[in-house]
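Q: Got a minute? One more chain.
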Amino acid sequence: MTSTSDIFVGTFEESVKQRPNRLTIHRHDYFELFFLEGKGEHFNDFRIYAIETPSIVCVSPGQVHFWRNEGSLRGPMICFTQEFAEKYASVDYSVLQHRFWFPAGNSPIIQVSKEQARETALLIEEIQREFKGRADGSDRIVRLLLQLILLKMNRFYLPESKSRSFRREAQLVRDFLVNLQLNFRGASSVSSHAALLGVSAETLSETVKKETGKTPGTFIRERILLEAKRLLLHTSLSVAEIAYELTFKDPSYFNRFFRRSTGDTPADFRKQCSLHATG
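A: Always. Here it is, folded:
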């Protein structure tokens, strides 16, 4: 997946062949799903997980990971951004509601039954066809299929909530990210999120940076930017109204924030979205 794309659908084996760095420690700022047959090992955030057939491997943004003894692993992979998955979704849906993202010490690997594997494979095959075909409406169909796969995976996932390997740091990051989805309007500073979570701003900043490679402030700005894009795309609110909706005290500051983050003014972004929608 390139920095300019929102989703990539391919295969694990081709990805490793084309990008050997996957076999060394690395991290991404997007979500990854691997639907694998075969046996191997996955290093994820300083733990090694054995992969048995069939398995769904989940990699959350910012997690450091790599593969080893991967020679027999085969299967499709899907890489996507949070913005892609949540576009056109219902207002109460968030990718982070799925417990296998940032699982706080539980395994990020879902071992599925043969029946669950068949059920998932059918959905993935449909995503692959739509992704490659690029027919009218494919973009939205791929999103809906991806959301369906994630919802199905939630049924398959059985976190070890009492696991001895539970890590407070991982739980704090997950709590912060989920809380951010719900309270980004009311809590726009690191200190306000820290207060909601019952920790100091310093603890929150150090933990999130260590676990994800990004600061809490970066996550907060990205969430506000995502909501701004959504409002520009899906509502008729003026730019000034959107600025106040997102608790900016001054629309001119909102304009500067948006342009600094995207390279476009809010008005230009909305115009481009309109052109794409009618083109």
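A: The chain has two domains: 7-156, 168-278.
Q: Perfect, thanks.
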